[in-house]
Design brief:
This is Acyltransferase family protein. The chain is an all-alpha fold. Helices cover 63% and strands 2% of the residues.
C-alpha cells in the first residue's frame, strides 16, 4: 500500500506523485538484510557452510542487494527532486539538494568510519600480522586516505572497490555520493525525456541494466575494471527512468491489479532465476538483475500482495533503519571474526561460536536502530536547521544594508478561519493597514507614491529602529496580533511624537476603523521581513 496518488499538474503530467512510497521504503530493509546475510556467509563456521549448501545462490548472490539499492535510490531521488532540478541548473536549488543528501548520509557514516578507523589503527599497532581487516586487499592507513574517507570520495580514483574503503561495505556509499553530485546535471536531460511514452522509458531502464546482466551471463561475476562505476550509473539511471515511466501510467483499477500481480510474481521469478542460473554456471543467475527496475516500478503502483506487506509499519521502520544497518554490520562482523581467530574458547567448531555468531547477526538491528535514533536523525535535523539559518544571513544582511527590500508577509485569511478571535483581529488589522497605506501615499502593492517618509530630521534613526523592532516582534499566540499592533501604535504615538511638540505628524488623520474612532499616523512598512 502506498501513500501517493496520481494528480493532474499545470505542466500536464499525467501522474504527478506526492508522498512516500511505503512499499519501496519497506523494500530497503529486504535489500539491506540480503547484503548483511551475504557478508555473514563468509564466517568460518561449519554451520554456516551447511546453510549455504541449502540456500545456495539465494544467499551467495546477496551482493545484488547493493544494485537493488542503487535502483531504489534513483527512483526516490527522481521522485523527490527531479521537478525542482530538471527545468534549469540553478545554484540555490542545487546547493540545497547536495546539502540535504549530505545531511542524510554523512553523520552516521562519520561516526562508524571514525570508530572503525580507530579499530584498524589499534590492529595495525598491536597486531601480530600485516592483516588489519578481513578484506582481500588491505586498506591503507595514512593522512591522504583519511581525508578521502572523510569526504566519501575514496573510491573515485580506484578501478576496483576492494581495499578502497576502511569500512569495506562503504564503497557503495562513495559511489552513491558521486551519483548525487552528478544528478543535478543529469536531471536536465531526464526532465526533458519525461513526456516519452511509458513503454519507451521502461525499455530505457531495462537497457541500462543490460551491461551488468551480460557480465553475469558471460563470466558469472560483476567484477571488472571500473565495474563499480557501471553499477552505480546504470542502476541509478534505471531507477530514474522507472520513475518517469510510472508517472506516465494512468492509475486505473486494471493497472493496480496488474501491478499487484507482477509484484507477487517477480520475487518468485528472481529467486527461480538465481537457482536456475547455477545449473548453467556459477554466478550466471545474477542476470536477474535486469528485473530490478521492473520490481521497483510495480511495487510503487501495487496496492496488494507483497506491496501491502512491505507497507506495514514494521517494514517501513526497518527501511528507515536500513542505511545504518548497512553501515554497522561490517564493523560488528570484523570484531567477531577476529575473536574466532584469536580465542580458543571461541573456536569455529564449538557450539558457543555458533551461538555468539547468531547473536552478533541479530544484534546488528538494535545497534542500527540506536545509531539511527541517536545520531542519524538528530544530526540530520540539526544540519538542516543550521543550513537554513546560514542561508538567511546574506538576505538579512542585504536588508540591513539597504540592498534588498523585505517581502510583505500575507495576513491570515480571516474568511477561511473558524477562530472568531483570529477573524476579528485579522479583519481589524487589515482594515487599519489599508487606511494607513492610503493616508501615507502608498498604493495597493505597498509602493510609495509620494516620497519617502520613513526617516526625517524629526524621526531619528534610533527611534525608527525601535519602531521596526516592535513591529517585527512576533506574537506568541494568534490572539496577540492586535496587541502587537497596538504596541507599535503606542511607540509611534509616545516616542516619535516627542519631537513634534504636539503637532500632528504629516499624513495623520482621524478615522473610524472596526467600529470605533482611532488616530492614524504615517504608515509603517507593510510587513516586517519574515524568514522562510
Amino acid at each position: 500500500m502506498r501513500t501517493v496518488r496520481p494528480q493532474t499538474t499545470p505542466s500536464g503530467t499525467q501522474a504527478a506523485l506526492s508522498g512516500e512510497f511505503r512499499g519501496l521504503t519497506g523494500l530497503r530493509i529486504i535489500a539491506a538484510a540480503w547484503v548483511v546475510l551475504f557478508h555473514f556467509h563468509f564466517t568460518a563456521l561449519p554451520g554456516m557452510a551447511d546453510v549455504v549448501g541449502v540456500l545456495g545462490p539465494l544467499l551467495t548472490a546477496g551482493a545484488l542487494g547493493v544494485d537493488l539499492f542503487f535502483v531504489l535510490s534513483g527512483f526516490v531521488i527522481a521522485h523527490t527532486y527531479l521537478d525542482q532540478l530538471g527545468p534549469a541548473l540553478r545554484a540555490g536549488i542545487t546547493a540545497r539538494f547536495v546539502w540535504a543528501r549530505l545531511c542524510r548520509m554523512w553523520p552516521a557514516y562519520a561516526l562508524v568510519f571514525h570508530l572503525f578507523g580507530i579499530w584498524l589503527v589499534v590492529r595495525s599497532v598491536l597486531g601480530s600480522d600485516s592483516a588489519i581487516a578481513f578484506q582481500s586487499v588491505q586498506p591503507v592507513l595514512d593522512a591522504g586516505q583519511y581525508v578521502q574517507q572523510l569526504f566519501m570520495v575514496q573510491l573515485w580514483d580506484d578501478r576496483y572497490f576492494d581495499g578502497a574503503s576502511w569500512v569495506g561495505s562503504t564503497w557503495s556509499i562513495s559511489a552513491e555520493w558521486l551519483a548525487y553530485l552528478l544528478f543535478p546535471v543529469a536531471a536536465l536531460v531526464f526532465f526533458r525525456l519525461r513526456r516519452l511514452p511509458a513503454v519507451v522509458l521502461a525499455a530505457a531502464a531495462l537497457a541500462l541494466m543490460a551491461p551488468q546482466a551480460v557480465a553475469y551471463l558471460t563470466t558469472g561475476s560483476p567484477y571488472y575494471d571500473w565495474s563499480w562505476l557501471v553499477r552505480i550509473l546504470c542502476g541509478f539511471g534505471a531507477g530514474v527512468f522507472v520513475y518517469l515511466a510510472v508517472r506516465r501510467i494512468r492509475w486505473t483499477a486494471r493497472a493496480l491489479d496488474t501491478a499487484s500481480v507482477l509484484a507477487a510474481v517477480l520475487p518468485v521469478a528472481i529467486a527461480s532465476g538465481l537457482l536456475a542460473g547455477e545449473l548453467v554456471g556459477p554466478g550466471r543467475g545474477g542476470a536477474v538483475i535486469a528485473l530490478f527496475p521492473l520490481l521497483v516500478g510495480v511495487l510503487s503502483i501495487a496496492d496488494r500482495g507483497p506491496a501491502r506487506i512491505l507497507s506495514t509499519d514494521w517494514a517501513v521502520h526497518g527501511g528507515r533503519l536500513s542505511y545504518c544497518l548497512y553501515l554497522v554490520h561490517i564493523p560488528m562482523f570484523e570484531i567477531y571474526w577476529l575473536a574466532l581467530h584469536r580465542f580458543s574458547w571461541l573456536a569455529p567448531q564449538t557450539v558457543l561460536a555458533h551461538i555468539v555468531g547468531v547473536l552478533v547477526l541479530l544484534a546488528t538491528l538494535p545497534v542500527a536502530a540506536w545509531v539511527y535514533n541517536s545520531v542519524e536523525e538528530p544530526a540530520r535535523r540539526r544540519m538542516r536547521r543550521a543550513a537554513a539559518v546560514v542561508g538567511r544571513l546574506p538576505v538579512r544582511a542585504g536588508i540591513a544594508l539597504g540592498f534588498l527590500r523585505a517581502r510583505p508577509a500575507p495576513l491570515p485569511d480571516a474568511g477561511e478561519s473558524t477562530d472568531g478571535a483570529l477573524a476579528t483581529a485579522a479583519s481589524r488589522f487589515a482594515a487599519k493597514r489599508r487606511a494607513l497605506a492610503i493616508a501615507s501615499g502608498l498604493d495597493s502593492a505597498g509602493e510609495a507614491t509620494t516620497g519617502a517618509h520613513a526617516a526625517s530630521p524629526l524621526r531619528p534613526p534610533t527611534l525608527a529602529t525601535a519602531l521596526l523592532t516592535a513591529q517585527r516582534r512576533r506574537p506568541s499566540h494568534r490572539a496577540g496580533i492586535w496587541a502587537n499592533y497596538e504596541r507599535a501604535e503606542y511607540i509611534r504615538g509616545t516616542y516619535l511624537r516627542a519631537g513634534h511638540a504636539g503637532r500632528p505628524l504629516a499624513g495623520e488623520l482621524h478615522s473610524s476603523v472596526g467600529g470605533r474612532p482611532c488616530r492614524l499616523g504615517p504608515s509603517p512598512p507593510i510587513s516586517p521581513w519574515a524568514p522562510s
